[in-house]
Design goal:
Length: 266
Amino acid sequence: MNVSLRRYCLPAAGLLSVMTLFSGCESTVPHVMGPGSFSTVVIDAGHGGHDSGERPRGGQAEKDLALDTAKRLAPLLREAGLQTVLTRSDDTFVELDDRVRIADRYGSRAILVSIHYDASGSSARGVQTFFWRPDSQGLATRVQHNLLSETGMPNRGVVRRVLRLTHNASEPAILCECGFLTNGTDYALATSSSYRQKVAEGIADGIVEQHEKGDYNLAVLPPVVSYAPPRHAYRRHHVSASRHHGKTSAKKTKSKKTSKKKKKGH
């Protein structure tokens, strides 16, 4: 059940801020998540098949660590009474848009949770949760909080950014980065089964908490972070807002037309 934002406008200061940010309570932000508003969790293990994701030289691949974490998460959610669906259950490649389509089949009673391990400079550490849709902010906030509680990792925050999965999905969607494989300390943790179990438990606790409480009394939406992927592999699950809305091809089309006119002139 989607709960009207009006129910939370007066007692919840955080949602008052959300209301102000979007310039209107019910009409502009109609999809605030209420308690019990979903029953199915679509769990997406990042990468797979020929797409290994991040793989430190001679080390374990992100695709395998993400899949193992996803398989640990599913039974925890089922124990809490939620239904689960995996976008992949083995080492196969699934296109990003197909992952979204899988989630969309379950309609408004579903959420999408994508699991990844990150990469950057060797000094970068910690866990981070991404979202885009306003109705995903509560889910992202609760999952990030519980990830930190379970793992004790550095907090890289909840980030609102346009990613293919979180932007294109028709249901609330988040993407969790569960540690940096390019950092020695994080890599040692990520390749430990006990750490991946903690990650699964943290994500599960956040999802269950969101299922029970909804968006009540949460903080203002964070600012949008511009698209700036640090590496090619990372780019695979990101998409810029301009590209997604079909704005990148305009200059190319124009230049092609100009070159054709020049050829005709010769």
